[in-house]
Design goal:
Blueprint: H1 7-16, E1 22-29, E2 39-44, E3 50-56, H2 61-73, H3 75-78, E4 89-92, E5 103-104, E6 112-115, H4 121-131, E7 133-140, E8 144-151
Antiparallel strand pairs: 1-2, 1-8, 2-3, 4-5, 4-6, 7-8
Helix pairs in contact: 2-4
Amino acid sequence: MRTLLTKQQRTEFLRENWKIETLNFKWTTSRARDSYGYNICTLKGFRGNKIASTCGGGYDMKGTVFGDMINKYFAHELKKLSSKDFYGLSHYNPNAKTCKRRFLKRATSNTKTYVDGGCGFDSMRRILEKIGYKIQFVNETKNSSTYILKSN
């Protein structure tokens, strides 16, 4: 598959962002007053630094925090992708006058591009692979799953 980033760009990105090379998805239960008993999914990087978290249930929480990580670190690359090719990718134009043109297939200078991780972990994995990275499963315990971010 042809990727957006070159091998040199991918290697340089991983060298600069070594803290997200190890992705650890942790599951806990909320003890907060308004959300007591809700599930919490937290994505942590190397040395336990928090990348993203979500609370609730009824949707793909693992995909949501993974999508938040993609939005944070690969915003520029997402603009180069077509939303018709990838489920969960949106190019939203808030300046559109009519409802028909608010969501576009391609990004423009006016669009806000993002991925909705609630569409599924596998959809986020496909988007990440198109950018030029893959995640390799390492292990899984009762409360966590660990992956390694690698260059394709």
